[in-house]
Every structure is written in C-alpha cells, then in structure tokens.
Design a protein that fits this description.
The chain is mainly alpha-helical. The chain folds into two domains: about 60 residues, Homeodomain-like (Arc Repressor Mutant, subunit A, Orthogonal Bundle); about 110 residues, Tetracycline Repressor, domain 2 (Orthogonal Bundle), CATH 1.10.357. The protein has ten helices and no strands.
C-alpha cells in the first residue's frame, strides 16, 4: 500500500467512525443502520463492512472511549468528588461519542456491556488508587450511577430541571454524593 493509499484508507476509516458516532448518538444502536452511516460518510455500505466487519464491530470501534480521568490522587482528598463530576461534565459536553454510547446502551445489550466495560476498566483503577475502605468496584459503581444517571436525564431524556442547571449548581449538587462514594467507608 502506498502512502497515498494509506492516507485515503485512514481518511475513509475516520469518516466512517465520525458518521457512526453521529448516527449512533442520534438514533441509538438498534435504529442506526449501516446504510445510513455509509450515506453520512459518503461511501458505499460495503466499505463499512470491509473496514469493520459488522455493525457490532463498527460500534465497538466508534465507542472506543478514553474517559481521560484526572489523577484524583493528586488532588486534596476533599475535592475529588467535585473534580470527578466537573471532569464528566466536560466529557459529556465536549464529545458526542460518550453520549452516543449512553443512548445506545439504553437500547442494546452489547452497547450497555461496552459502557460497563469502559467504566470498569477506567473508573475502578482510579477509585482503587484513592485507597480507603470498601470495595472499589462498589464505590466506582455507585459513583457511576450518579454521573450516568445525570447524563441520561440531562443529555438523553432532556429533563428540563436538569438541563437548566448551570455548571456550579451541578457541581454543588452531585459533587458531595460522588465524594462520599469515593472516599467514605
């Protein structure tokens, strides 16, 4: 493969992933189709299959998501809950991929499993690093209930009272609860 072909291949792959994230975010996993994704990407549907093999393979690639969690151990212990909520607010508002994964997770067992694995693989180690008593898997799971539940109500369901909250109010409301899950016994 020449460097020109490799660049075209990378560009095609990127276009497919971008289109997939858009369609999965707008329609959820079940309703998004390979044809619609290919149309948004401006390619033939067979190319999607060539690159990703299946809708599941495409979703897994499109939903590859690094939460880019901050090193909570570098913060004063009493600020970790608020910092984690602030981080998730930025992630939800700055990248449609996480919203797409959440929407898809509501309608698809595969997508729900992908969301679980992302949070287990990335949040549990961050909670473990904080130390403290109690099972870090349970503590991470409880923290996830807050950020995922909030995201569902704000970004998917559009609950007016939640969508209308400004950043400071969100941090003041969710931060203490997440703090308790992360640091208390």
């Amino acid at each position: 493969m020449t460097s020109t072909q490799a660049r075209r291949s990378d560009a095609t792959r990127a276009a497919i992933l971008s289109a997939a994230r858009e369609r999965f975010a707008a329609e959820g996993y079940d309703r998004a189709t390979i044809r619609a994704i290919a149309a948004v990407a401006g390619i033939d549907p067979s190319m999607v299959m060539r690159y990703f093999g299946s809708k599941e393979g495409l979703f897994a690639a499109a939903a590859h998501f690094d939460l880019r969690l901050p090193d909570l151990t570098m913060l004063p212990r009493e600020e970790v809950g608020r910092a984690l909520v602030a981080h998730f607010l930025e992630r939800w508002e700055g990248d449609d991929a996480l919203q797409a994964l959440l929407r898809a997770g509501v309608t698809s067992d595969d997508a729900a499993e992908r969301m679980r694995s992302i949070f287990i693989e990335q949040l549990v180690p961050a909670v473990t690093a904080l130390g403290g008593a109690g099972d870090p898997h349970v503590r991470a799971g409880l923290a996830a209930t807050q950020v995922l539940g909030f995201a569902l109500c704000r970004y998917v369901l559009g609950w007016p009272e939640v969508t209308g909250m400004d950043r400071e109010r969100v941090l003041a409301s969710l931060g203490p609860t997440v703090q308790r899950y992360l640091t208390e016994d």
